[in-house]
Amino acid sequence: xxxxxxxxxxxxxxxxxxxxxxxxxxxxxxxxxxxxxxxxxxxxxxxxxxxxxxxxxxxxxxxxxxxxxxxxxxxxxxxxxxxxxxxxxxxxxxxxxxxxxxxxxxxxxxxxxxxxxxxxxxxxxxxxxxxxxxxxxxxxxxxxxxxxxxxxxxxxxxxxxxxxxxxxxxxxxxxxxxxxxxxxxxxxxxxxxxxxxxxxxxxxxxxxxxxxxxxxxxxxxxxxxxxxxxxxxxxxxxxxxxxxxxxxxxxxxxxxxxxxxxxxxxxxxxxxxxxxxx
Length: 278
Description:
This protein is α/β, with parallel strands linked by helices. It is built from 12 helices and 8 strands. It has a single domain, classed as P-loop containing nucleotide triphosphate hydrolases (Rossmann fold).
C-alpha cells in the first residue's frame, strides 16, 4: 500500500489586524488535536500573541524561539537540519507549538539580504513537518517578508475576515499576493477558504455573509463556519485553554468544530487528488 501521509501546511493570514487570526489558529489546532491529528502551531508574528495565548506570558525570556531557528537556517552552509527540539513546546491540549517573540522583527529585516529569502521558513518546516498531520502558521498582520515566507511554505491559506463590509472588501491585496506567490514561488499554494469572524446579530450578519459569498464565492471558497463574537471567545487569551475547554457547549465552540471539520474535509480531498486510487 502506498504511503499517503501528507502534511498539510496551512497559513492563517490577513493583513488587517484584530480579525481573530491567533484565536483561530489556537482553536483550530486544538480542534484538530481533538480529532486525533498530530498538530504543530507556529507563531510567525513578532508580537507573540499566539505564544502568550498558549500560556507563555513572557516570550522575550525564552532562550529558543522561531527567530533562533530561522537564524540557524540562514547561517547553515550545508543541507543539515536545524536543531528544533529545544524550540518545540507542548500544550496540554495535545498539540506542539513553536513560540515567537519580538526578536522575530530583526530576523524579518535581515531576511531582505538573504539568498532565497522567501523560502527560509519552508526549509525549516521541511525538517519537522514529517512528524505532523497539520502545521498551522499564525501570520502577522502585514504583507511583509514573514508573511511571504509563510505563504511560500504553505499548501493553503485560510483567511479570517471580520464580519464587516469594509473588512470584507479589504482582501483584494492579500489575494493578489497569494496569486503572485503561487505564480512565482509556490505553485501548490491555494486559498483553502475565507471564513467570517466576530459575527453577531447586530452587524447584519446574514447580509455580510451573503455579500462575501457574492463578491468572492465565484473565485474563492467561502467556508460555512461563521465564528461569533462572544465574551467567552475573548476570554481565552488569558485562560490558557481553547474554546473547547473554556466554553465547550457555547456557540463559538460549535463554530470552531464546524471549521475543524471543513479543514479536515479539504485535507482529505487533497490526498485523493494526490493519490487517485483513494
